[in-house]
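Much of the work behind modern protein science is quiet bookkeeping, done one molecule at a time. The protein below has been through that process, and both of its lines are reproduced in full.
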Amino acid sequence: MLLSALIFLPIASALLVLVLGETQQRARQIALTAAIAELALALVAFVGYDTGSGGYQFTERFDWISAFNIQYLLAMDGLSAPMVLLNGILGLAAVLVSWNVKDRPNQYYMWLLLLQGAVMGVFVSLDLVLFFVFWELELVPMFFLISSWGTGRREYSAMKFLIFTFLGSAFMLAAMLTLYFSMPSGERTFDIMALVGRDMANLLVPTWLIFAGFLIAFAVKLPMFPLHTWLPDAHTDAPTAVSVMLAGVLLKMGGYGLLRINAGLFPEQMADFASPLSIIAVVSVLYGAFIVMRQTDLKRMVAYSSVSHMGFVTLGIASVAGTGTSLSSVGMNGAALQLFTHGTITGLLFVVVGLIYERTHTRHIPDMGGLAKQMPLIALGFMVAGLASLGLPTTSGFVAELLIFLGTFQVFGLATALAAFGVVLAAGYILWTAQRTLFGPSMARWGSLTDARPVDVAAMLVLIIPIFVVGLYPSVLTDVFAVGIDPIMAGFSLVGFGG
């Protein structure tokens, strides 16, 4: 029952904090205890996953709606185990960075914990209906967190997020039901494990239509260009903790879905669509990087950098078009690793931006300067996240991007070279932003600014530690991801693609 505990611990804690968190101190104590316990459970699940045996482990299965063969089916493999750990890490960081929330803290922490539980359900659900339920459930807390505790045009940004992601979910629901009813009546199932390797050639509708429905849903969430326009607004107007969760795990749901469902269930269609994916990836990487350089708002800068870095994930997945080369699995492994590393790196960037805004009450870059002199610890956190984002060796960002480039170069040489230029642009905009905000002449109008408090340092350390652990010892994740990706690659081999 470990996986059920991972899902329902934060959900139960959300109800507890709503009822008992009548004061700010009480609310954050309950939320912090729940976040620490959730991270501990996630570590137990991650460490307890046996890479030697591989496959799905910690399986929980019982009938839910027997008439339609819908099951409560949970399991974890090498692809989902690191995502479970990432959700636990970011959940704790989100609670710590929310320490000063004073407006209805019990409701705020309730929605935050409910969000974490819903995302955890997405990563361990292996019944398509259950997967969809948790996929939709996360929309509710995210909407209320942005619209109630956000800044600026918070209602507009919350509604835009809801409309984009809800429409994407409609395509997924249509694809899911079409797949189910296209199978012979005695073989209908929503069980992802049972659907892997099944012949999709004899369905009642063209398989590519079903593939496209899932692809659109995951492309919106990732997000791919041009379906990304909801992201900058949501990030800009969301509270800091919500930006951490949004960039850290909600975007990763899109990449996870592409790997688990599009690549896992439809290898032939995914391989056929690999070339267009590589083009979309390059456009996302370069478009996001160039737009970043035009931003004057720190949050929008980080938001558009996410569009750019998620393009690397798309490029790594496109490497499955390689025929007869084992490097295809390297690119896929890099894409999966990028999901994890981007979560911690960009999560740290949003933590730091939130701490700066909390003290200066602005995110306008031209108004800043010399902040490192008064806030050296916060400046250090920004530089660690920034250097990891541009792929500095010894950080996790370098390993993920290197694997993606190694895996895709022999398949899409030009696309890889163009995407690699995005790393150069990242170095430019990260260092330029650091120079304008942290260094140079101090802005006297700030007066005296306080540096990070112990709780702020804890929030940064929760994210800094995995950045360097994975950067120095990447096999702690790549070996686990490989166990989950190898069966997916086997599906491509069966249809004549991949290594």
